[in-house]
Amino acid sequence: MSSCRCRSMRYSSLKVPSKGFADAPSRPEGNRRGGSKFPVEIGLSAAIVSVDREQPQVLVVRHAKSADALPFGPFEPLRHRTLESGLRTWVKEQTRLEFEYAEQLYTFGDRGRHLLGPSEGPRVVSVGYLALTRATGEFRTPDAFWGDWYRYFPWEDWRGEKPHIIDRAIVPALKNFVRADRAFSEQRRTRLRICFGLDGLNWDEERVLERYELLYEAGLIEEARRDGRLPVGQRTSEPPLGAGMMFDHRRILATAIARLRGKMKYRPVVFELMPPAFTLSELQRTVEAISGVRLHKQNFRRLVGDQGLVEGTGKFAQMPRGRPAELFRFRREVLSERHAPGLRLGARRLGI
Description:
Layout: E1 4-5, E2 10-11, H1 29-32, E3 40-52, E4 55-61, E5 72-74, H2 83-95, E6 101-108, E7 123-132, E8 144-148, H3 164-179, H4 185-196, H5 208-217, H6 222-226, H7 249-263, H8 280-291, H9 297-307, E9 310-317, E10 325-330, H10 334-337
Parallel strand pairs: 3-7
Antiparallel strand pairs: 1-2, 3-4, 3-5, 4-8, 6-7, 9-10
Helix pairs in contact: 3-4, 4-5, 5-7
């Protein structure tokens, strides 16, 4: 396997330095000469998403005795022409994985995001990306695997029913959080109602990041406990919610999920996850996997038809039961025909 060489360490696989990028990328010339008292280094983090057998999955890195992490690596200005080219280069070198679709999410640079002390190295600013791929196979490196993203956000999957964890654990704990500080109780109560669809409000599948940040602020997830940011008087006996991730990678993943759920309503990005030919049932199951909600079959097919997103191939797929299903393909002409071609799911879904 080829590798990505930096000035002071070598990435032979998807390495996750225990202290961020303190030893990874080369420092700016001004910093090495003492020109800056507060050095900053740029890293690239990637939420690489695929869907396999109706399960949304994200490329995850795991090393012994460390939390799961999104793949990340350094940006090298002398080697990488752009941030995105840097991302594509080291992902391909380290995993042999290539993807067509990538977009920049956000720049994550909060102080303390890598838990570095005052003398432990420069501050790391990470540029997060969302990438979509049809690949679902195993990787050549033992460090990387496809992880079910609902393992990290179990409250986000409403396809079967409302997740029991919401009423059993999340809402009672957040109500305690609301009552804990009278000065902010009304603000917190409003956030709780909006984020988790209480008091007659609808569940909004796009509020993934807002829900995560509320749970973090309330000290209910592993990252808050690890960062030492529990509210005053907060007990830590309850188990954390969902699987934790290294640094602020679960926050980056929450941002990616929210972006994808929102964007597929006005851009046909879901087809980046589909094979060249597919049945309408396969397309619906993929949309449901990403959005975390079940959709009405006939309404979904009517929506796809009205938007002009697909066209028949004239071929059929044999099904285990019943009649053969017609195969369709994405109709690219829609990109020039409509201002915002996408799958607007509407306010009413099954089970919501």
